[in-house]
Amino acid sequence: MASTYDLILKGGTIVTPGGEAAADVAVKGGRIVDIGDFATASAGQVFDANGLHVLPGVIDSQVHFREPGLEWKEDLESGTRAAALGGVTTIFEMPNTDPTTTTPEMMLDKLARAKGRTHVDHAFYAGATNENAEVLPEMERMDGCCGVKVFMGASTGSLLVEDDEGVERVLNAINRRAAFHSEDEYRLRDRKSLAVQGDWTSHNIVRDAEAAIMSTKRLLRLARKVGKRIHVLHVTTAEEMDLLADAKDVATVEVTPQHLTLTAPDAYERIKGYAQMNPPIREEHHQDALWRAVGLGIPDVLGSDHAPHTKEEKARPYPASPSGMPGVQTLVPVMLTHVVDGKLTLARFVELTSAGPQRVFGIAGKGRIASGYDADFTVVDMSAKRTIEHAWSASKCGWTPFDGFEAKAWAVASFVRGTMIMCDDTLTAPGIGEPVRFVETLKGKVG
């Protein structure tokens, strides 16, 4: 008797832990149940993946969706819509909202806001301050919390833990891996006067490489002192990559598509305020070092650092213009274009966007195409040629720093727990997002 499934993805090239293979994937109850040839099987839905690659669902572990308090820039609905349309199936959202996510009550508020309004699975960071170390252990154990985020250098919002004593207090309080924005606040303050009015090319002079290097040296010393795990976000410098290559015992590493694709001063001269983010877009020799590090396996995760602002806000003359750019919707086509161009392999892309996040954050049941895992898939056409345009952006901000980018691959469909959420640039199952589960905080019945 032929087997019956909820969903079969047929005829595609799947990317599994064992490599690429021509195979079908069978799904039942939201999970992968078999991989093979199901020519005689029946299913409630059959997706024809002939000529396409079926990847594990892409996980973007750094986004800023601005809700609550800054919804004119973005909210959970619009941000996860952009994620879904770009082929991202899971997001981790940052705590620098208004109010900040620094109490258990605010974590519960975000989870409540997400219910029925998010189109992909989601988790939220708890924000660390100099005053809330005592509640962080409770927050990091809450359902839907992906860990603690610490800003060592001020960026967008009011969260800041700039001193060694504060960082050590946070690390001593928690047990899970903490994520860090690593720039030295003291040096940033000293260099504010170097900002040139209306000249965005001065941004990476104000926030120079040394500010990042100094901070990461301090952070690694403190992590080893207290014996805690850290995750260094959006690394931008050659020197930091050398430091972090020698610190894999305590540190994992994130890079972004922006820092791998845009360079200074060209980006600032060409797109002006749209190129402004923290840490900054840097010179070509730093980007070359990031790519070398990718090839050596040093970065563990690729995150978009999606951080939108309105066109009007971005048009203010530097330094009044805010830092941050959208990226969740463009992560897949930009990085797969680099795959087509030979800068990284498809297997390395999968490692950075699914297996890597799963390992770094201890995600339960996601991150690979294997029996028993959530049926999260990003289906891509590795020969699709399309131009990224502002008009394609689903973010409330309505722009992208990659306007005019000639993409050589594209996400054509995505699935979350066996449900197709996007097909051919159309949202097909709105509002199904659920909180991500983590192995360090599983409660009650597992399964």
Radius of gyration: 21 Å
For the sheet with most strands, the description reads: 8 strands, parallel
How many domains, as an integer?
2
CATH architecture of the largest domain: Alpha-Beta Barrel
Helical residue percent band: 25-40%
Protein described:
The protein is built from 14 helices and 21 strands. By secondary structure, the protein is α/β, with parallel strands linked by helices. The chain has 2 domains: 92 residues, Urease, subunit C, domain 1 (Roll), CATH 2.30.40; 305 residues, Alpha-Beta Barrel (TIM Barrel), CATH 3.20.20. The strands form 4 sheets. Strands 8-9-10-11-12-13-14-15 form an 8-stranded parallel β-sheet. Strands 3-2-7-16-19-20-21 form a 7-stranded mixed β-sheet. Strand 19 and strand 20 form a beta hairpin. The radius of gyration is 21 Å and the shape is globular. The two termini are 28 Å apart. The mean pLDDT is 96.
Topology, please?
Blueprint (H helix, E strand, L loop, with lengths): L3 E7 L2 E4 L2 E4 L1 E5 L2 E6 L5 E7 L4 E4 L1 E6 L12 H11 L1 E6 L10 H11 L6 E7 L8 H5 L4 E7 L12 H10 L4 E4 L3 H6 L12 H4 L2 H18 L3 E3 L5 H8 L5 E5 L1 H5 L4 H6 L12 H13 L4 E2 L8 H4 L16 H10 L5 H16 L15 E5 L4 E2 L18 E2 L2 E7 L2 E5 L2 E2 L20
Parallel strand pairs: 1-6, 2-7, 8-9, 9-10, 10-11, 11-12, 12-13, 13-14, 14-15
Antiparallel strand pairs: 1-4, 2-3, 4-5, 7-16, 16-19, 17-18, 19-20, 20-21
Helix pairs in contact: 4-7, 7-8
